[in-house]
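Example with several molecule types.
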Amino acid sequence: MRADRGIRARVTTMSAQRRAAILGTAALVLAGCSGAASSDAPGSSSGGELSGTLTVFAAASLTDVFTQLGDDLVADEPGLDIRFNFAGSTALAAQIEQGAPADVFASADEVQMARLTGAGLVEEPQVFAGNSLVLAVPTEDPGDVAVPPGERAPSSLAEIIDEGTTLAVCAPEVPCGRAAAEVLDAAGLSDAPDTYEDDVRAVLTKVQLGEVDAGLVYHSDLTAAGDGVDFYGFDEAVVTFNDYPVARLADAPNPDAARAFVDLVLSSEGQEALLRAGFVVR
Amino acid sequence: MSRVRPGSRIPAPLLVPAALGVAFLVLPLVGLVVRAPWSSVGEQLAGPGVVQALRLSLVSATLATLLSLVLGVPLAWVLARSRIRGRSVLRALVTVPLVLPPVVGGVALFLVLGRQGIIGSWLDDAFGITIPFTTTAVVIAETFVAMPFLVVSVEGALRAADARFEDVAATLGADRWTTFRRVTLPLVAPGVAAGAVLCWARALGEFGATITFAGNFPGTTQTMPIAVYLALQREPEAAIVLSLVLLAVSLATLLLLRDRWLGRVGS
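Resulting structure tokens for the full complex:
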């Protein structure tokens, strides 16, 4: 199976990613980021004391795992109503800057979070997961991207993608697009993209539809893609390892629920869910 | 100026909601003008992406309008004049894109004209033609969304036109094609022009179907609305300037349209 080989390729880069994750987190702590809370102290294990609406703005790549964590929280807190807004992190940060009433913001990179921290809009951002890019290819492989079985799997993106490959990436305005640009630069493929989509799910959708030969998506999108999409790891992915920070908003309409959700994400339960969803965790 | 007729004074209960309505519709546009970074408008417009996106928008909207005219005017004639059965069903079907969310239109276009699509896969196998992510895809997406505007306008004009002229032409020995060309078309020309302008404006503003079906690539498929959307995430000021350009174009279009209507009223 080609997909199996893709997974093996992923596993080989995984340890490097983990190292990067630990380094990234350590750097963050060293940089004097307060609030390095212990990662398994869920704030509301008693349950049944939260009410009202909790609004969570989260990066598109978190769609599945956050939806599931939200359901878990509501199971404990029946009085709570959770609303999610999943989109590109940059759009979300812009919406929050414009005064959108959010309680929690989870970004796919530090840049957007720093933008809000600088404006005094969020409190104590904490890294809760990490992610990196992989190449998603439709299983029917319309662009002959995959290697025939039995041949050595290429390790560099430049060996996989050529002139004729129709490639979808995120727009450079959003985190996954910046990461894609770095990866393509490292591989000497800056001119390769054919469309710049506005978030990572849009890229994945175009791969699932078979409308592009390949797309650069997050490692964590593996679980969301289901059948019909194969993934390939590649060497250049290491340059774009990115940390995901989460934070409560300074003027959250529902601060208690916001705190509970952030604690849940950082708890061992939340971290396990993220790991299952293909993220790298601490 | 219109004559002041007795009874044309605004009834008091209508005055406040009408004024609120005006404020609601006009204030956002005023805000756009007030908040515009006028000092840097020149350099923002000189940015390489802006000219590129504007040119692509104007060219693709014009091509979409021409395509709509070629296909839409005959279609409007069929809806207004022909006796075929199921006309009302046909009319409902061809005006669906008016009420369909454009993103859904984009997905539907994928399923027909995409690489895996019903027609698209055949095009790909037989001729190696792929439509998505090309300028052709932009024109197709815009046409899909904008053509119904033209069809509805022209059909309305045809229904309002006096069919007796056509009957006279027929009794004088003109065949049906000549009648259409020499009598019907000149009669409804103002309606066709108004429909074309509406269609062009709608195509210019098209976002959802375009970004879905044609994607976003500078110079090839990045139209003005897509450029505005992305600029808003990076540089709100650039987005305001781009929006101003679109606003100016839209206003000019509407003024042109009004003159058309006045011309028709005057004739």
